[in-house]
Description:
alpha/beta, five-stranded mixed beta sheet, 42% helix
Amino acid sequence: MNDKIETRFRQDVLHNTVNAAILSRWSDLGLPNAWLVAGCLFQTVWNLHRGRPPEQGIKDYDLFYFDPTDLSEAAEAQAQARVSTLLADLNATVEVANQARVHLWYPGYFGRPCPPLQSSEDGIRRFLVLETCLGIRPHECHAPFGYTGLYAGSFTPNPLTPYPELFAAKVASYRARWPASAHPPTIVSEV
């Protein structure tokens, strides 16, 4: 990975005060194999590079963790409650998801299959849009498909989640939040 673009990504992400605060409290969260992921990262970059405040329009901040020892909904709810308490002063919605249990709820929620994931990184690799497959934690970034598309403002369907209708809905949602006047991201290829 090009260290220069990764450094730029980290700097951009930290312009968002909520991202910075979450990362500064990382050790207190107590989540195994955890990453701050996706929307709060790429939306911060898009906001900055379109002259918008870094936090604008970000509806939530997602934390992935991986705990295969307890796949219960109750354990995930306990992790959510602990994180919500620790980060309550941020006045931001922070959602916590155990990637070890995604295969249990994904088909009912999205109407599509999902194999059991092997790690949080495996979950990051499966976002619908390649450019959004991003994670960060203190001293480490994870971008399995790189940063080039992120900074180009493009959308590319992820072959690991080949669901054209879900991809199209995601693209429509992003285009609504970054209208034409703000130079919205473009689709690289359709599924």
